[in-house]
């Protein structure tokens, strides 16, 4: 009996500590959003984990929006995008990409009407991505592709309007020289 009371106190204290710890556990999404807004600084490993968390949250939000918005149609841009990767003044590689846009049903005509402006915006995004090293190394890693698609979506939205659901990379290849 003398041993039972201290063991009981230890178990109650341990259970209470675990319960309080679970209640006070920081919200990783809130921390990641604070990091993204520049209000919080995290170590490199935690920052990379935050990027993955935010990308997953954004992807889930987009999927839910798509479900709620109804039927879609696809508008594939007719020509591929060719992006030279330079090293000094020499072309080191070429990246060739095909892009399609997922649009709300009945709004795909605006893509073809504004294709020159859309191609210009996409090329600008692709050139900036190339210049910042986005096509170096593992350029098809999920985080790199999500970043590129996010930028392409941001570039397309003001041009084609609210009918835009997503920008799709239908083909992407890198040819080294």
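^ Assign residues to that structure.
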């Amino acid at each position: 009996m003398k041993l039972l009371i201290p063991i009981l106190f230890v178990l109650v204290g341990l259970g209470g500590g675990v319960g309080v710890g679970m209640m006070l556990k920081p919200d990783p999404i809130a921390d990641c959003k604070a990091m993204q807004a520049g209000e919080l600084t995290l170590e490199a490993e935690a920052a990379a984990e935050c990027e993955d968390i935010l990308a997953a949250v954004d992807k889930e939000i987009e999927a839910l929006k798509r479900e709620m918005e109804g039927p879609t149609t696809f508008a594939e841009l007719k020509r591929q995008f060719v992006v030279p990767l330079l090293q000094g003044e020499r072309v080191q590689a070429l990246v060739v990409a095909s892009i399609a846009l997922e649009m709300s049903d009945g709004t795909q005509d605006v893509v073809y009407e504004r294709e020159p402006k859309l191609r210009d915006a996409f090329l600008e995004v692709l050139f900036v991505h190339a210049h910042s090293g986005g096509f170096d190394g593992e350029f098809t890693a999920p985080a790199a592709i999500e970043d590129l698609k996010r930028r392409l979506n941001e570039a397309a939205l003001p041009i084609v309007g609210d009918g835009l659901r997503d920008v799709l990379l239908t083909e992407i290849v890198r040819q080294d020289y």
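The first strand starts at residue 72 and ends at 76.
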